[in-house]
Amino acid sequence: LSSTTWHDGYLPVDASGDWVFQATDACTLLLVLTLLARVLVVQRASYQASEDSFPCVPIVLGSLVLAAILHADLNSRPLFDAMWMAGLFV
Predict the structure, then answer these.
(1) Residues in CB range of 3: below 8 A, 6 or more apart
(2) Mind listing the pLDDT tens digit for each residue in 28-53?
(3) Contact 74, 81 (CB under 8 A)
(4) Which parts of the chain have pLDDT scores under 50?
């Protein structure tokens, strides 16, 4: 979301996607927050911690490391470019 609201590197050159990409990113963020609230608050009693064996931390760390190495340079800001790439991996 930050790569399309604060910087223009990952947006089309013409004005065709000026608000579409930001609106899509905002809706995606709202959807993720809604799902997290649903899982962590509403359906908390149905969570089976003993059955949850997926290793999330190595996946996230791997995506951050790969993003730091393989990021593009469209924003000319390494942090924002790497976060955009990590978002693609995760």
Answers:
(1) 9, 10, 75, 80, 81, 83, 84
(2) 999 999 999 998 898 888 888 888 88
(3) yes
(4) none
